[in-house]
Automatic annotation (TrEMBL):
ADP-alpha-D-glucose binds at residue 21. Keywords: Glycogen biosynthesis, Glycosyltransferase, Transferase. This is Glycogen synthase. It comes from Sphingomonas insulae. It catalyses: [(1->4)-alpha-D-glucosyl](n) + ADP-alpha-D-glucose = [(1->4)-alpha-D-glucosyl](n+1) + ADP + H(+). Belongs to the glycosyltransferase 1 family. Bacterial/plant glycogen synthase subfamily.
Amino acid sequence: MTSAAPLKVLSVASEAFPLVKTGGLADVVGALPGALSPHGVATTTLIPGYPLVGRAVKGARVVHRWTDLMGVEARLLSARLGTHPLLVLDAPALFARAGGLYGADDDWHRFAALSRAAADVADAMRFDLLHAHDWQAAMAPAYLRYRAAGSRPIPSVMTVHNIAFQGQFDAEVFAELDLPDAAYGIDGVEYYGGVGFLKAGLQSADAITTVSPTYAAEIREGRFGMGLEGLIETRRDHVQGIVNGIDPAVWNPDSDPALPTRYTARALGRRKLNKRGVEAMFGLDRGDGPIFTVISRLTWQKGMDVLVRCLDELVMLGGRLALLGSGDAHLEAAFLAAAARHPGRIGVTIGYDEPLSHLLQGGADAILIPSRFEPCGLTQLYGLAYGCVPIVARTGGLADTVIDANEAALAAGVATGFQHGETDYHTLAHAIRRAIAAYARPDLWCTIQRNGMRADFSWAQSGRRYADLYKSLTGTA
């Protein structure tokens, strides 16, 4: 910790682990305060007051009230996210409702209010910098940018966790956003004749980060930029990729309470008891052959349509599959049909279960991640930490974090998994065959497992890079 007063950063997001989570965004937002603290950064996290969050912070102190926050009453509650400060936007008209976090007709209103509140809080509570995550918080840098002339300058960082999700809305909502008319333009919030929340954040922020270096380069191309590649290209000098980390306090096979048997890289034999647990939970035949796992949204982006086509071959080669996930109805049905076609060889659980995901990482032999694009990915990092060997597409953060078991990497003793090229049947099936061949050589397989487990994917290095960025923007470097 530096001797100077810590830099005060407001981190704004739509979810944060362990309070509320739909995906990796929550893990990152929840881990950042701890990652930044050793580098002289004091992070306060601001999230919406969903019912689950409200119950967790019941009795929290009210530190501010809005009588008219974009047309609704709201309170700001002060609580804790682990050992770090947490602010909760308690706006019942917007967030106190059943169902999923996203997909409501008034999402523009809900998350514009979150962003507007963030800008108000950053100013009133004298934060040094605002860090916005994904489209749900992306209007915050825009609200800072279009404040009244003479306002205290507050720099902002916009992090893109997945550029495919952009928060695009009809032009009619602009009149309700409490922004000056000048903000509706190509260099403001206007996007293809409507309002683009992520576009506004990318245009307005002082710096843009993505969650891996490769993804930062990829989104400058049409195939990955999802219509925003031109903007990213014009702001390329403000863009950098900082790979996500994982929290070893949560993801550690030597201390994980979700595992029947804990283990280390030096005691990999203990994993077999966890493998028996996976077999029991997913109705798989007991055996010594490899168990592949999938822990994923079942979507086109994740390459799940291609994986379905490879399952018959995977089983024919002696593999088994344990899948945990949900998503597109036709893909859920296809995996369930494969399980019915191969009883005892394929087990499928539709939904998400955090402890079960830990068991799969600690008991399955390999994890399949054939994504067509993947900004960073966390499941491959969990797999590396747990000796669950990743089989991944060569894209985004997957390419940055997994070292392919090619001849050169094997000879050098550095391989940590298997990569394949563009996601299609032939490349994925070939990667599965390579993995099964390596699994048949126990000493080689253990070496690959241990290499991954010894790699450092904690937040230490990434936390320092974020802190350095913050300090450069605030002139405190």
